[in-house]
Design a protein that fits this description.
CATH topology of the largest domain: Beta-Lactamase
Structural class: alpha+beta
Keywords: DNA-binding, Transcription, Transcription regulation
Radius of gyration: 22 Å
CATH superfamily of the largest domain: Transcription factor LuxR-like, autoinducer-binding domain
CATH architecture of the largest domain: 2-Layer Sandwich
Organism: Pseudohoeflea suaedae
Strand content: 5-15%
GO molecular function: DNA binding
Number of strands: 5
Number of domains: 2
Protein name: LuxR family transcriptional regulator
Order of helices and strands: HHEEHHEHEEHHHHHHH
Amino acid sequence: MDQLHAIAERMTSWQTLDDLIDDTFDTMRHMGFEALIYDYTPLPCDMNGRLEIPTLLKLRNVTDDMHDYWCEREYFRIDPVQRLATQTSVPFFWNYDPDVETKISEFLTDDTKPVCDFLREHDMRAGVTVPVHMPRGDYATVTGVRFGARKDFQADATRVLADFNLLAHLFHEAAYGMFDETVLNSSGVRLTDRERECLAYSSHGLSAKEISRIIDRSVPTVVMHLNSAARKLNAKNRTQAVVRATQCRLLDPLPGFSPNQ
């Protein structure tokens, strides 16, 4: 624990995310892991209920083309580890050795075969994944990989599981503070300040007429901002626009405003 306390203090000293990841990976290697996979997504699922492609995917000692397969070719959506990680907050072991039963076994189907084939081809057969679910719906996983088909991997990794779990959460907390807006917003939607403001008031149940009085603009101008935001969010109406903007974390608190005032 003293060592992890020192690591936590050191994490706050890094100026860049890549430096932080390099340092964390070095610590993981001393725990017996040979590769690191870290992903972050503002929301686990998209509007259609599919696993969302991460806005950040960082790899260490992993084949370079994994980023292309997981993000551009959308293997992330069918990754058995990710499917399990969205359903639990507990660290878990996984193994793609067909003779070893782990919690991902129930997700190994014809649909997920491309992922299984890729990982087996690159000898990334076993690992431990720590899911990180945040209060606003943010979602991340920190994964330590062990190369090769090793049936005794779980027994080996059990000895460091508690420390690895703590390390993963300390790392993510430090990493989160380094994210910029492009990482935090998965939708790619860009609303103007006035569109965000009008939607924020609308989220409290205010009508266009009520919003117009607060922001000192005409009712048609408020309606224009609300309609423009709805188009950008591909929403059918104002209510759906508010829901989608909230899911995409595009609405800011309204300082000094009380819905009961």
